[in-house]
Amino acid sequence: MTEIITMAYQPKVLCSTAGMSENDWLAWRKTGIGGSEAGIILGSNPYRTKRELFYEKTGVEPVNERETSTLALRWGHALEETVAQEFSYKTGLRVYQMPEMYQHPIYPFMQGNIDRFIDFHDGTRGILECKTGNPNTKSKWNDNSLPFHYEVQVKHYMAIMNINIAYVACLFENNSDTMEIRKIERDVDFEREMIAAEMDFWNNYVMTNTPPPFTENPELCFETINKYVQAQLNKTPVVIEGFDEQLPRIAELRAKKKEFEDAVKAVQTEIDSLVLPLLDSMGNQTSATATVNGMKYDISYKPVPRTTINKDNLERLKNSI
């Protein structure tokens, strides 16, 4: 790989994003790899697979679009300026926006939109990535940690811009005390590995129109298949080959799974049979205590009322539809 870390290079401005429509912006994104996509290639993105990214870059349209809420994305974009200004207030650093899409001058498949730039007091420049997060995910930032796919995203931008310092600021609620700020320094060794992985994905899969193999969490891979593959009901099974090891192992594991499931059912049946006389002795009470050989046991249960519709109510329901 060409040595890029110690070179004095400047990023290329691919295009201006000022006033750009969303469709045009998405079209530009298909011409390269963006920062939020770098984590997909490195396998650190918990939501998407390389196969899905490949389909997007090669123009394959989904046939079963999964239902995802865009509210979080819209709010994240709307609050970007708020996050940036709060970061500036907390750090005393000037932040500003340049509405441009950038491209690496040596590896043109590396592209990025920078949320904000930072002017440091020593005259150098940094990057600010603005995030908003669900309070339920704040634990991922505990002990000064940072979700790895965010770190990969920012290091992708640092490589393009030839910048050594970046920050990620994430606001979790409408309270400045919930903001988490993380500093990222350029990592030469990691950057080489990241660029090599992106180059492999772009040159060996996208440019050759070769779907990359599934290597991620199986459930995530199943989602990609369901999203992009139109199932065809066929009476005659297709013949597939090359799975001499997988198929016997699948059959073995499914048999073992059934054994476990049967064992769980047997255990639950025994538990239920032992619990039944306890509940019967409690009458209409929902909690009780008992002591056996000096050991105290607390017993409680929550009755679940069964809802039924009688014939008259069913007729009224039909007539109201």
Describe the protein's architecture and organization.
- The chain has 321 residues and is an alpha+beta fold.
- The chain has a domain at 12-228: Lambda Exonuclease, Chain A (Alpha-Beta Complex), CATH 3.90.320.10.
- Helix content is 42%, strand content 16%.
- It contains 10 helices and 10 strands.
- The strands form 3 sheets. Strands 2-5-6-7-8 form a 5-stranded mixed β-sheet, sandwiched between helices. The protein has a 3-stranded antiparallel β-sheet with strand order 1-3-4, with helices on one face.
- Strand 6 (125-132), helix 6 (148-161) and strand 7 form a beta-alpha-beta unit.
- The longest helix is centred in the last third of the chain and has 37 residues, at 246-282.
- It is extended, with a radius of gyration of 28 Å.
- The mean pLDDT is 88.
> Largest sheet at a glance?
5 strands, mixed
**Anisotropy-based shape:** extended
Q: Would you tell me the structural class of the helices and strands?
A: alpha+beta
Radius of gyration based on Cα positions: 28 Å
Beta-strand level of the residues, as a percent range? 15-25%
Number of helical stretches of at least 4 residues: 10
Q: Between the first and last Cα atoms, what is the distance in angstroms?
A: 68 Å
The largest sheet has its strands arranged as 2-5-6-7-8
CATH-defined fold name of the domain at 12-228: Lambda Exonuclease, Chain A
How many β strands by DSSP?
A: 10
The second-level CATH architecture of the domain at 12-228 is Alpha-Beta Complex
CATH class of the domain at 12-228: Alpha Beta
Q: Which residues sit in consecutive blocks of at least 5 with pLDDT less than 50? A: none
Helix content: 40-55%
Mean pLDDT value: 88
Helices and strands, in order, run as: EHHHHHEEEEEHEEHHHEEH
